[in-house]
Amino acid sequence: xxxxxxxxxxxxxxxxxxxxxxxxxxxxxxxxxxxxxxxxxxxxxxxxxxxxxxxxxxxxxxxxxxxxxxxxxxxxxxxxxxxxxxxxxxxxxxxxxxxxxxxxxxxxxxxxxxxxxxxxxxxxxxxxxxxxxxxxxxxxxxxxxxxxxxxxxxxxxxxxxxxxxxxxxxxxxxxxxxx
Length: 179
Known about the structure:
Number of helices: 6
Low-confidence stretches: 22-38
Number of strands: 0
Helix content: over 70%
Distance between the termini: 62 Å
Mean pLDDT: 82
Radius of gyration: 22 Å
Structural class: mainly alpha
Oligomer: single chain
């Protein structure tokens, strides 16, 4: 709940900064730099902050899960998401993909993990609970595959850019008779 309040406060600060009222202009310029440096030293976007919050929740839930298949899958998910965050810090396209992931995929996955933990802690289980637990494990694995694909797509643009630069440099060197 406190994390949601933090994100709400960041959203409010962004709104105030981007759409200031006349009376807020002076207050913001005097106070906001101090507030921003304490709460968000890297001036990260709300999307990145939200992703980090979701990563923290996944880490928290993964501590309560002792499953040979699901635990490594959650570690992999955390790693992929951290890579996506790193990419998105310098690339708006990546941030757009993260925003989409934050809107549905991660909240749903987190909700499933919570239920998975609840199911594992039940003293008595039936086939429905067992089957649902297996389905949660399966869907987390599938979500990881989708996240890997999105991360590869993000990096594909880098490959296209660098390959283009390589071709241009080779052509210039050939034209100048240097190779």
